[in-house]
Amino acid sequence: MTSSIPSTTTSIVATAPGPVDADTSFVAHESETPTPTGHDLLVEVRAVSVNPVDVKVRSGFDADAAPKVLGFDAAGVVVAVGPDVTTRAVGDEVYYAGSIARPGSNTGHQLVDERIVGRKPSSLDFAAAAALPLTTITAWEALFDVLEIAEGASGTILVTGGAGGTGSMVTQLARALTDLTVVATASRSESREWAERMGAHHVVDRHDLVESVRAVVPDGVDHVFSAFSDGNVEAYAELLRVRGAVVAIDDPEGLDTMPLKDRSQSWRWEFMFARPLHEPESDAQKRILDRVADLVDEGAIVTTANRTLSPLGVDTLREAHRLLESSSTIGKVVIAAS
């Protein structure tokens, strides 16, 4: 089944890996609109958001893959479906984080597997919804799959990067679905205010981590969500209780986790693209996004969009990437298609 679809679509591509201001990093590219097969949906993209992984891919992808359509988070409308699709229909409003193995969301029309696509929260516009998928899935999997925290569980979790996109969602999900005490880190007054708005019980200075955390939870923490692992392993080991666990999402080189051994603490990883890459038949991410859409519409979760640009094009994407590279963003930068 299809609706009226243009024969071509415009994507913003990188024709070579490189820095944000390189002419090759953001180029408008016209191509034939793809046709969905199998479990694919063809989505008319109405908004996207930008994540650190977008910056990482843009600056270091394999040049043989050019032109590279960047982007992961998106919200839009289904305009065609493959013959095996059973969960979505033409006209559905959806949101998703995509797969690192497929062309990205910085385009007019994108193919995405229905099993990683959720229904867009009806209470949000497309830009506000586009802020959520990648960080929501990362936070959910980190809490409930990797750390194996049960809904309704008690204890204490330290959330580093409390004003970041993923840290914001870890805090919100922990507050909405568990009885965990959330201690978030922040370094600036505006970051502290954001982390408090997301629901953190305590916000502490990330520069004096052990002293700051001990001041509010003297007995330490049961779990750590680590957005910034480099240089923090010893602090985590000191703060974690016996058999506590860290879940990390960053890419620290040569990380030494031996300080965790003395108390039988563990280090675990969360990579939200693992399921699309290695478990393509799983619909777990669809179910996560549908559940969170319900939580948003119930008022238990709010969007993390904090700055909106428009339209989706070379200049706005370059600006969004610059903002992320400044390391000063709070929440998410989103781009409305028009």
From TrEMBL:
Protein name: Zinc-type alcohol dehydrogenase-like protein
Membrane-spanning segments: none
Superkingdom of origin: Bacteria
Region (Disordered): 1-23
SUPFAM superfamilies: GroES-like, NAD(P)-binding Rossmann-fold domains
Family: Belongs to the zinc-containing alcohol dehydrogenase family. Quinone oxidoreductase subfamily.
Ranges of compositional bias, category Low complexity: 1-17
Pfam families reported in the protein's UniProt record: ADH_N, ADH_zinc_N_2
Domain Enoyl reductase (ER): 21-335
Classification via CDD domains: AL_MDR
Taxonomic lineage from the root: Bacteria, Bacillati, Actinomycetota, Actinomycetes, Mycobacteriales
Keywords recorded for this protein, A-Z: Metal-binding, NADP, Oxidoreductase, Zinc
